Amino acid sequence: MYKIIGLVGSPRKENTYFLTQTALAEVKKHNIKTELIHLGKLNIKPCNVCNACIKQGKCIIDDDYNKISEKIKDADGIIMSSPVYFGGVSAQLKAFMDRTRHLRREDALTDKITGAIAVGASRNGGQETTIQQIHNFFLIHGAIIVGDEKTRHYGGTGQASKLEDIKNDNHAIETSKNLGAHIAKVVLKLNKE
Ligand SMILES: Cc1cc2nc3c(=O)[nH]c(=O)nc-3n(C[C@H](O)[C@H](O)[C@H](O)COP(=O)(O)O)c2cc1C
Predict the structure, then answer these.
(1) pTM metric for this prediction
(2) Fewer beta carbons within 10 Å, N or C terminal of the chain?
């Protein structure tokens, strides 16, 4: 059975978490297994440039990172989500991204089907620049990026400060559902005999 993982970069269980759940619920409708990982709550330290990833082919910092990297290696698709912090991803998500340097050398994310979700408090608060940063990460890993197929934009985009706002943000819900459906469709299509 195929599997798609949602990686939530917010330290909170609110807007970004909700939209990632929304996208994964759509994935499930295609009989694909899902797992949501709340990265922002885990203990993932920033890269300290010890270069063990180059010399030994693995990250040797002892925290929650290695169990997550094993999970994403096995996934067919990844949805990465972040709150907008100063027009970019959260520090928690960036720490995770930088720790994946060894995965690039293993081609571990190459050809995985991926997409992004971002939530900012303002209408033009940097949702697209945050998604662009996530897309850059996936491109540098050789992954295949998809957007929210029906509206043909960047992925799930929300405007909210608190949970009630995101639950009433129809555009956010629609684009996140569309992203989930598109990732599921491409995973099934590309894995067809
Ligand atoms: C440090 C910090 C920086 C922020 N920067 C922005 C920003 O640049 N643009 C924006 O629209 N919202 C910004 N916000 C607001 C959050 O993106 C917004 O509250 C979002 O809904 C949080 O997502 P969450 O509920 O998943 O944690 C910032 C919030 C924090 C804590």
Answers:
(1) 0.98
(2) C
